[in-house]
Design brief:
The complex is a heterodimer.
Chain A (H helix, E strand, L loop, with lengths): L7 E6 L2 E6 L4 H6 L25 E4 L6 E2 L10 E3 L3 H16 L15 H9 L17 E2 L4 E3 L9 H9 L5 E4 L6 E4 L12 H5 L5 E3 L12 E6 L8 E7 L2 E7 L12 H5 L14 E4 L2 E4 L2 H15 L3 E5 L5 H15 L4 E2 L8 H8 L7 H6 L2 E5 L3 H4 L2 H13 L2 E6 L11 E4 L5 H12 L5 H8 L3 H12 L16 E6 L8 H14 L9 E5 L5 H6 L20 H10 L4 E5 L3 H4 L3 H10 L2 E6 L4 H6 L2 E4 L8 E4 L4 E5 L12 H11 L9 H11 L8 H4 L4 E2 L28 H5 L8 H4 L5 H4 L1 H4 L1
Parallel strand pairs in A: 1-5, 16-17, 16-23, 18-19, 18-21, 19-20, 21-22, 23-24, 24-25
Antiparallel strand pairs in A: 1-2, 3-4, 3-5, 6-7, 7-10, 8-9, 11-12, 12-13, 14-15, 14-25, 26-27, 27-28
Helix pairs in contact in A: 2-3, 7-22, 8-22, 8-23, 9-16, 13-14, 13-15, 13-16, 18-20
Chain B lengths: L22 H6 L4 H8 L2 H11 L11 H7 L8 E6 L8 H8 L1 H15 L3 E6 L4 H16 L15 E6 L9 H8 L23 E5 H13 L1 H6 L1 E2 L2 E2 L1 E8 L5 E6 L4 H8 L9 E5 L8 E2 L9 H6 L8 E6 L4 H15 L5 H18 L5 H14 L7 H15 L1 H14 L9 H11 L10 H4 L17
Parallel strand pairs in B: 1-2, 1-4, 2-3, 7-11
Antiparallel strand pairs in B: 5-6, 7-8, 9-10, 9-11
Chain lengths: ~775, ~475
């Protein structure tokens, strides 16, 4: 679908000629001339303006009445005044109206100091109030939800929160009740507003009416600093600003990046920060001594770990979890391959995928980005549930449907929160994602195997044909405009589609679909994988795979994948295991096998933040791991965008940087990585991966860079032969296990944040 | 006064005919002949007739109907016609009588207008309180469907129209056209931002023609006598006849059909018989409670759109409310302000806060806690509301209240003095603030969570205090 284009026009504001994009609302256009028009209800993220607060009234030549700047698009030659007497009187009167029922309890209000109502009153208000009547009263403050408090007396009824709930997250919970001056924001029957994205309303509120309960009374704006980073708690990698006071994270706010998150944040990203300072966090190295993990010095822990790894040599194995940076992954891979001569290394949960399949699916031409999801004609969500796998994409798809006319199809084994918005929803058998994709590929290619594959996927062939038609779109009509727009289709697929034992079938089917829909050649079309872990893509590109080196390069000998590592450990063929921010019992498939594997390993070295069951029972050496606001390094977004993590808070206790620990270990194994800083680790990574070549941290900056958009992308290796997907479907032993499914909400960060206690203690509350 | 002038009758010709609400009687009286005539013409010709008639909307804004129809975009998209039967303006009860007594005339008008506008889907949004009228419409609609006047391929013309009678839940704001559309779509009835205007993006985002009951009911008459003939009635910019609902202090309240442009005195004294013996007109609302009040001096103003606008008031819905000299102006102001405070939807700031503030100030005047300075504040609050709101509801309170303060300032000041005397405040300078504060404490903190009703109460402690002028009649 065509992206909005901006043509510049000229208009006059307060006597000055200013050029601004045509059609921009006056409020935004005025900024091009350094003129600020005050607003409360206007928030472009929320869609169409509503013109409710009347704060942005301006005078436009030729129009007798004052007009709202938030809803009047600028036109060429328009003459606008924002400082005439009429406008001033109107602005002052709106401020006066807003304040007559506002409690003016700024000294005890959390918003005080960063409050638009304060700022606008100061800038555009009259300075005095003539109102001597009693103010409106409400019971206050109330819990709107376990996470959010509402003070209805402070509310200026700007509708932002209600619009968010109704039109952005579409949970339809918040409403305005009653009428006129008695109106108030609530849920319909007063039930708590619990929803995956509820915290955004706190940030939207222009007054102190909606406050974060975990943040209430923790700091004033002059006590705090903001530090930009990227949330690593799920693959969506939303950009965040961490509010820091005394080296502690007190709050997480969205940092708008339209190419990633559109300025929204899920509640996990927003409230799980409490886990960084949780009591349960591991803050010093531990060693198993007499059956118990006991704190030791770094020296001792590193010696012990290095000794064990040296003994294991080529029989050592490593698994990197999704919160590791590309740098950590790259150094870990070097440690294993160069230091120990062991190829047994993995970061995927789902089993091996051939190198050719990795290369074919990762081909730059085939990659869609996040905004393609919004502007595509059709999107197929295939074997993933955005709200549970990469939450923020859920909002992007809703936006596409609501504002751009996107047609959404959902194909998944279970119900999806997007079903009500989808044009078509198809359920296939659990674990049969690959078979379903193959069936769709067959339907698009008019292959005769359709019926067999549909049988294996447990779906009606008519439904698959309907889906194929939806993706193909209407047949071009005879005699229609010669300039037919190519159909932009995006396939948003989950990593479990390429899970063992049907990895090659899934990959082949995806490539078949891409071929049939010409995704590689249509601008705005493509595929977007939702990896199972936050930095899944980055770790693969850094070479944390059993069958690929940095930049998906060919290896001499392939190693074992995660499942084979488990089998090797259980069978005694492998002896030592290095776990970089990964808990196999929680995160990897086949828990029973991993129980045996961990018990069978002679040494388990864990780099971890929390003593989860696996670590507590099986780890012999534990290195404390950094939380993401402490880290320095890079991540790769599922669409190929490299993003920078920057340290926002100090590391607690004796926690050391991840790259530092791995480099120290390597040193003890006789390998000098020559890495003395995070930036040096990054440089090594960029040098090792050919298609990152020439990247610098400065270039990545605060918004990130998609490597596909750089020249070096040409260095991406082409597959020798692409998988065909003709393979047959193998029934997974246990479909649930094969799917390796875990919602991103099911995480230690959620468990260890007191804000989320309500999720686990519902019974007590009753 | 003289006997009522012999006005030409178009809407009320047979209004008292027994059984006019049935198809049989309506057809016997020439009903649906206009529809046949219209369907024999092209839609453009029908539209030309409407334009030639000069008919202006009878709901309040007075926008030319033909022009409104022509604003609808051409094309094959779904277009809607919505009849606004949410007659909520205090003093207005003309649509009520039309729908109850001659519902077929409205249905006929809707079908003709939909033909001209190219709409195939129509709704009558009727306020919930009009139970009897909605029942009458439902019954008439059933008959009209049976007879083939509504539905597929009407009278073999190829024009199809679905018509649904939708009952509202009773909110003044749902009479505002965009609030009505939201309500009809099943949402909270709040006005929308304009533009886009309903003619472009209305119901379900489709082009929508919205007209008042009386406007649509006039359409068959225009087709019958032709637009040119209709335009000869009335005066140049206000053509045709108009129903006026006369209420208040008059001897013969009720609905009258008048030719636009007759002197207002003719309506109040001639048709409605003027105030009771021995009383004089103090002020009157020419077009519903939202029109600025006029005084006895203005009685000779011709009753038409432009003359009333020139007198800084408006014809509005044609509801003439007469107030005689037995009623204190404060009571009128309080009644009007309370109504609009109750009906304000709360979406935009000036209306939500301004109506509430105005009521509180008026109540303070009534209870003797105000000073003449408060009149200044009140007048300036009205000025700040007018023209700054999202829809016209805020103006609907601010215009009449502002006009009352301007025209009856002396009486307000007398009232303030008298009420203060009655509270024993006059002359005891310095205690005002203390007593005002006392007043504030008298009022228990309002808790609106439980029920909105509490907020509507005046500070109860002062109600009916001895010596106030409340309820003086």
């Amino acid at each position: 679908m065509p992206r909005p284009e901006s043509k510049m026009i000229n208009f006059t504001i307060d006597g000055r000629e200013v050029s601004a994009p045509e059609g921009a609302m006056l409020v935004d256009a005025a900024k091009h001339g350094d003129v600020e028009i005050p607003v409360f209800c206007y928030e472009p993220k929320l869609g169409q303006p509503v013109g409710a607060c009347r704060m942005c009234l301006v005078e436009i030549e030729g129009i007798p009445k004052l007009q709202t700047g938030c809803s009047t698009p600028v036109r060429d030659g328009m003459v606008v005044y924002t400082e005439t007497e009429r406008v001033k009187v109107a602005q002052q009167s709106v401020v006066e109206f807003l304040l007559i029922n506002h409690p003016l309890d700024c000294p005890v209000c959390d918003k005080g100091g960063e409050c638009p109502l304060q700022d606008i009153t100061f800038g555009w208000g009259g300075g005095i109030s003539r109102f001597i009547e009693p103010k409106r009263h409400f019971v206050k403050p109330l819990e709107l939800s376990p996470l959010i408090a509402i003070d209805r007396e402070r509310c200026i009824l700007c509708y932002r929160c209600v619009r968010f709930s109704q039109e952005i997250s579409e949970d339809y919970q918040l409403v305005l009740l009653e009428r006129g001056a008695h109106s108030y924001v609530s849920t319909f029957d007063g039930h708590p507003y619990v929803a995956p994205f509820s915290g955004n309303i706190v940030e939207l509120c222009p007054v102190g009416a909606l406050t974060s309960r975990p943040y209430r009374f923790r700091a004033r704006p002059w006590d705090i600093e903001g530090a930009g980073s990227v949330c690593t708690l799920c693959p969506a990698q939303c950009n965040v600003t961490i509010t820091v006071r005394d080296e502690r994270a007190l709050r997480v706010l969205a940092r708008q990046n339209d190419e990633v998150d559109d300025g929204w944040l899920c509640d996990k990203g927003r409230f799980a920060y409490q886990s960084f300072h949780a009591e349960e966090r591991i803050t010093e190295p531990l060693i198993r001594d007499g059956g118990q993990l006991r704190p030791v010095t770094w020296e001792r822990a590193l010696e012990q770990a290095a000794g064990a790894l040296k003994r294991a040599g080529a029989n050592a194995a490593a698994i990197a979890g999704g919160q590791s940076t590309g740098e950590e992954g790259h150094l870990l891979a070097r440690l294993m391959r160069e230091g120990l001569g062991s190829p047994h290394l993995d970061s995927r949960r789902a089993g091996t995928l051939s190198l050719d399949a990795h290369r074919a699916l990762g081909a730059p031409a085939l990659q869609a980005n996040v905004s393609d999801l919004e502007f595509a004609h059709a999107v197929l969500v295939l074997d993933t549930d955005p709200v549970n796998d990469a939450s923020i994409l859920d909002l992007r798809l809703r936006k596409g449907i609501r504002r751009r006319g996107l047609k959404l199809a959902v194909a998944s084994p279970g119900p999806s929160s997007l079903d009500p918005s989808a044009a078509l929803s198809i359920r296939f058998k659990p674990g049969a994602g690959a078979a379903f994709a193959a069936a769709l590929s067959a339907a698009l290619g008019a292959s005769a195997e359709l019926e067999t594959l549909c049988g294996e996927a447990g779906v009606e062939s008519a439904a698959v044909r309907e889906l194929a038609e939806l993706l193909r779109g209407p047949e071009p009509q005879q005699g229609a405009d010669s300039e037919l727009q190519p159909r932009e289709v995006v396939i948003l697929w989950g990593e479990r589609l390429t899970a063992a034992p049907n990895a090659e079938l899934g990959a082949g089917a995806l490539l078949g679909i891409a071929e049939a829909l010409d995704l590689a050649n249509v601008e705005g079309a493509g595929m977007l994988e939702v990896p199972a872990t936050a930095n899944g893509r980055g770790l693969r590109e850094a070479g944390v795979l059993p069958n690929a080196g940095p930049g998906l390069s060919q290896l001499q000998d392939a190693g074992r994948d995660s499942a084979a590592i488990a089998e090797g450990l259980a069978a005694g063929e492998l002896s030592a295991l290095y776990l970089l921010q990964c808990d196999p019992l929680r995160e990897l498939a086949d828990r029973a096998l991993w129980e045996r594997a961990l018990a069978g390993a002679s040494t388990v070295i864990a780099h971890a933040s929390f003593l989860t069951d696996a670590i507590n029972e099986h780890a012999d050496v534990v290195f404390p791991a950094e939380a993401y606001p402490e880290k320095e390094g890079t991540l790769v977004h599922p669409d190929g965008r490299l993003q920078r993590l920057r340290p926002a808070i100090a590391r607690p206790g004796s926690v050391r940087a991840g790259w530092h620990v791995i480099a120290e270990l390597a040193l003890r194994l006789g390998l000098d990585f020559d890495v003395l800083s995070g930036a040096m680790a990054s440089r090594q990574l960029f040098e090792a991966v050919p298609f990152y070549s020439g990247l610098t941290l400065e270039e990545i900056g605060g918004r990130g860079v998609r490597w596909q958009e750089r020249e070096a992308a040409a260095a991406f290796p082409a597959p020798a032969s692409a998988p065909s997907g003709d393979g047959s479907f193998e029934e997974p032993a246990d479909p649930g296990e094969a799917a390796g499914y875990r919602s991103v909400w099911d995480a230690p960060e959620v468990e260890h944040s007191p804000a989320f206690d309500f999720l686990f203690k519902t019974k007590e509350l009753v | 006064m003289a006997a009522p002038a012999a006005s030409p009758m178009l809407l009320f010709t047979d209004i008292d005919e027994p059984g006019l609400c049935t198809l049989e009687v309506y057809e016997r009286r020439g009903g649906y002949e206009s529809l046949r005539k219209a369907l024999a013409m092209t839609p453009e010709e029908v539209l030309d007739q409407l334009k030639a008639s000069g008919l202006r909307g009878r709901g309040g804004a007075g926008f030319a109907m033909g022009t409104k129809v022509s604003f609808l975009p051409k094309g094959s998209m779904d277009k809607y016609l919505v009849c606004n039967a949410d007659e909520s303006e205090p003093g207005t009860f003309k649509d009520r009588e039309l729908m109850q007594k001659t519902p077929h005339m409205l249905i006929e008008g809707i079908v003709i207008a939909s033909y001209a506008a190219g709409a195939n889907c129509s709704f009558i949004y009727i306020r919930g309180e009009y139970v009897e009228q909605a029942d009458a419409l439902d019954a008439a609609l059933h008959e009209a469907r049976e007879a083939g006047y509504v539905g597929e391929d009407i009278l073999g013309s190829g024009h199809s129209l679905s018509l649904v009678v939708h009952r509202g839940a009773g909110a003044y704001i749902c009479g505002e056209e965009t609030g009505l559309l939201d309500s009809l779509e099943g949402k909270r009835g709040n006005p929308r931002l304009k533009p886009p205007f309903p003619a472009n993006q209305g119901l379900y985002q489709g082009p929508t023609l919205i007209n008042n009951v009386e406007t649509l009911s006039t359409v068959p008459a225009i087709i019958r006598i032709s637009g040119e003939e209709y335009a000869k009635l009335g005066v140049e910019t206000s053509t045709g006849t108009k129903l006026v609902s006369v209420s208040g202090h008059v001897q013969r309240p009720g609905n009258y059909e008048i030719e636009l442009g007759i002197p207002s005195r003719e309506i109040i004294y001639g048709l409605a018989g003027g105030p009771p013996e021995g009383r004089k007109v103090k002020c009157w609302f020419p077009g519903g409670s939202s029109s600025p009040v006029l005084t006895a001096d203005d009685l000779d103003i011709p009753y038409d759109f432009n003359s009333l606008a020139a007198a800084k008031s408006m014809l509005g819905s044609g509801a003439v409310i007469v107030v005689d000299d037995s009623t204190p102006i404060l009571d009128v102001a309080l009644k009007v302000a309370k109504f609009y405070r109750h009906e304000s939807c709360g979406k935009c700031t000036p209306c939500r806060e301004g109506t509430n503030w105005t009521v509180k100030m008026l109540e303070r005047i009534a209870s003797g806690e105000a000073t003449p300075m408060d009149l200044e504040i009140m007048a300036s609050v009205q000025e700040h509301i007018i023209g700054n709101c999202l829809c016209v509801l805020g103006d609907a309170m601010a215009m009449p209240i502002g006009s009352m303060i301007a025209k009856f300032r002396d009486e307000f000041e007398e009232h303030i003095e008298a009420a203060r005397m009655a509270r024993g405040l006059n002359g005891s300078a310095g205690s005002d603030a203390a007593l005002a504060a006392q007043g504030a404490f008298d009022e228990a903190p309002e808790t609106h969570l439980a029920h909105h009703g509490t907020g509507d109460q005046a500070p109860g402690a002062h109600e009916g205090a001895p010596g106030t002028h409340r309820g003086g009649a």
